Structure formats: C-alpha cells, structure tokens
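dumping these here so i dont lose them again. two proteins, back to back, each one seq then structure tokens. dont judge the mess
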Amino acid sequence: MTDNAKNVPVLMYHHVHPLKSPLNVQPDVFERQLATLKNAGYRSLTIEQFADYMNGAPVPDKSVLITFDDGYLNNYTYAYPLLKKYGMTGVLFVVTGWVGDGLPRPTTANADAGDLPASYVHEESKHLVASGETDKVILRWSELQEMDASGVMQIHSHTHTHTRWDKMAADRDEKIARISAELAQCRQLIGQHLGKQDDFICWPQGFFDDDYKQAAREQGFRYFFTTDAYGFNRPLGDKENIYRIAVSNRSGKWLLNRLFYARDTIAGRLYGKFKKWKKLRREAKKRAREAQA
C-alpha cells in the first residue's frame, strides 16, 4: 500500500439507464467510467473502509467512494451488474418510505434488453413516486437485500420520505420533530430488513442545518453525506460534512480530469474556490431577480 491518500473523493450518481436525461448516466457511459477508473489504478472503497479512513486508517492514494441517491430501480437493473463486472463497490442511499415488496426484477446480468423494467427520466420518476406508483421506479426490499448481501452495493439511509422539513414544517419545533421521526424510522427499517445498525445518512437535496445534524446524532448517525462538491474528505476530517462530486453523463477521460481537481493539491484547492465563488455568484443573482419580481 502507498502512503495514505491525502483525501478520498466521493462520487455521486442518481440514475443509470439508457435514456439521455438530467441526473442520468447511460449504462455504456457508466461502464466506460468504471473501466477508466480501473485502468487508471483507482480502487473503490467500501463504506466501512471510507469510515476507517476518516478516522485515520490508511487507504491507497487512488481511492474513491461511489454513491447513488434515492434508491432507483435502474441502480439494480444496470449499475449493480456493472459494478460487479469491474470488481468495484458502491453505496446506495435509499428513501425507505418509497421501497416496496415483491420478488427481484430482471437485470442486465440475467435478462435480454426487452425483458428489463422500463426506464424513466428523473422528472417522470418523481411524478410516479408522488402519485404512488413507486414500484415502477424504486427498488424493492428483496433487491436491496440481494445487493447488500453481495457487498457490491451497500445500502444506507436517505431518510424515510425525502422531505425538506425546513420548508414544510410550520415552525422550528415541528421541523425538529419531523426530521427526528424520519431519521428514526429510516434507521429502524434498515435494521429490520438488512440486519445492520446504520451509521451513515445522506441528506435529501443536500440540505442540512444544525437542527438536522443534532437530530441525526441523537438517532445514532455518525457520518453525514452532503451534495457539496468543493472540499476534501481528509483523514480525521469532518465526518459530519462529507463532500461529494456529481458525476455527469460524460467520458471516462472527463471523470479522470474531474478527479485530478478533486485531489487535495494547490490546483484542486484553487479549482474548488473558483467553482464555489461561481456558485455563490449565481445564487446571489437568482435571489436578486426573485426580489425584483
């Protein structure tokens, strides 16, 4: 093993299916990304290895953590077989209130293309969930159990309903009560169906504040995953603010280039500061337009 990595980038995916659309990486592109990572010497960590790293244990310099948000069926149909093919591991943060029951459905590893479940773009997936047709787009417990038992795709918490209670609650007391209940129910269901005590939470829509963090601590969570891309996950770093990089439907070469700037180097720090400045500038302009409307 080389010297301990200065930082470990965490990759963030949502969908993996054939339709070209926002928040989706097509299966052939995803495969090329995995092949490129492997050929470049990258190793995907398990979430336990990542947690150990955050607590000071060494990992190879070229290490990444691969994560998926929400619990879409296409993560099982397309992503799971490809991770297995390339000897890589992933982490799926599931919204437990959306998960259904039933037998596992076909994947690319055991069925022809015509027998695979239908694919839906992100906005349509959200509509189907909102209308109660979650089984068309969301995983079942049997599929989650299969993936988690394999060690290829580890399952962890993304709350119970994916609700932004900071926006929906009438006041702060209700917000705290609601998010606490969500976290408790999610963690309880992960334990019931997968037989594990979950220490890892991924925040819905990336939002969190001090109330959310305190509620998570009280429920037993120790590692908090965000959607903030502009920082570094270092040994003995902040386990309650784990940075993640959104992966686009782009080439393996693009991903390697993005990982170059995700490393804790002078170039990486300058890139992060510049991108964060641009993001804050966009948000300030948006607020100004809304104030004038």
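---- next one ----
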Amino acid sequence: MTAHHTAFVKTTAAALGFSFCGISKAEFLKDEAPRLEEWLKRGYQGKMGYLENHFDKRLDPTLLVPGAKSVVSLIYNYAPQKPLEGKSDLKIARYAYGEDYHTVVKDKLKIFLDKIREGVGEVHGRAFVDSAPVMERAWAKRSGLGWIGKNSLLLNRSHGSFFFLAELIIDLELDHDEGMKDYCGTCTACMDACPTDAISEPYVVDGSKCISYFTIELKEEIPASVKGKFDNWIFGCDICQEVCPWNSFAKPHQEQRFNPPPELENMTRQDWREITEDVFKKLFPKSAVQRTKLKGLQRNILFVEDQDARPGDRERE
C-alpha cells in the first residue's frame, strides 16, 4: 500500500499545479543542527530574532506533528513571463508581483490534504508555507527536488529557483526519494554579483547583509554603510537568482493570482516618490509587499533615490 499511497500523493500534487513533489522520512535533521547553530552564533539572522526561537522544532518535524512519518516537499512556480519593467527603474522581487504566496499556496495545500484524506483515509498532519519553524530547503533537498546552491537557495535543474517551497508533514508512511547531487560546480556568479557581499562564503548567506533583509525584515533605518548598493531594489532582491545560470531554464508560471496589477507597470519614479495609502492599497491589495506597510516602502524608496537628482531624470519621467 505504501507504493500506492506514494503514487497517489504525487499524482494529486501534479494535478493541483505543483511542479515537483518529493518525499522524505520525518526524522531529526542531525546534519543541519550544527550548521544552524553556527549561523545563529555568527549573528547572520540580524534583527530577525524569531529565527532564534524553536531551535528543536526546526530540526525535528515530529515536534510539529506528533507521530509524523513523512515530509512531502513541493515546488510551486512563480517565475513571471518577464520581469516587471514598468516606467521606472525601481524594482520589487518577482515573488511579490501578485497575490501573497502564503495565501495562494496554502489554499492549494488545504485542498491537497483533503484529497489525501479522501483517497487514503484518516491522515493527520499540517501544511506549511514559510509560516512555521520548518527548514524547507533542507527537506526539499532530502526529497530530491534539487540541491542547495551557493546563494543558499534550492536549485532545480529544469526550473532554476524562481519557485516557492511548501510542505505537508503527515503521519502517513510513504516511499522516500533520494537526494540530488550539487550542480553548482565552480560557478560563483551569485557571490560575485551580490552588491552587499551577503554571500559570505559558498552556501552561506549573511542574512543581516541581504538587500531583502534591509528592505523587508529590518524595521528601523537602513544603515548608511549600504547606501548606493541596492541597485534600485525597493522590496526584496532577485540579483543572485538573475545571474544564476540554472534560471535560464525557468518556465513562466500558470498561476493567475501571481500576475501583477496593470497599474504596477505604469508607475514612474515620480509616482513612486509620491505614493499614497490609496495607491499602495491599489497596487498591493493582497501582495507580500503589505509586510512593509506604506511607511516601510516609502523608507526604501527614499533610500535608493539619488537625493541629488541626475540631469535628465525629470525629463525622462
């Protein structure tokens, strides 16, 4: 029955629009423990104090779901047809173009868990989308969905890295997949391209130096030491993904809820400078950009703006 249940789970995942589904045994992540401890010891979490909490739960899925037997890891694509160009050079990360992925993918996972129960019987478990202390990249790697690249993101040979990871931790016994080897080779494109030197060494990202950290997680003023290094990113950053050769294989998503509102394409620099609460709500009604609130986005815009306007800026607008 285990093989039958495994096939059912993977077929159901594909039918719901997940690009890949991999399965691993729900057990303590002993190899990840010392790495996580060292990362925290170095202070790479910055002001993200929540990453210091629930150390044991991050490593042991049975503490999140008692009796858990399997971790089902999933990939949900968000690569757009093309980057959002608009009428200004201010940029937001691709994952935030449309509706918040937490909502979109969580909706899929609820249906997924219901269908497993319909097809298999009583199954206990929980669904996760970057919303609990789950080391999703470690589980995805174990499940054969890809390998962890030098930029610390999961890379997949046929989809690159523009995708979300999600998990079901369930008490259903399933066949486990084998991990995938590392295909980064000698490439250091992501390390070379990071303008804030956040990729401190291969496979290790200093979160406290990442542009995404500064523009999303940091609630206080952005330090002057990184002035001029944001390359016009006002929410998140895709630089280490844009330069990754594996993202040449990324395929456009088919999720309508991830499409940006037309108004976002028409924003000029002047529009961004003068953004109001009403415009903010219209541009990002259900977007992850809501995390910064208007005040945070305005802070980011001001930070990347050249205070001494370059000749011709006004005319171009």
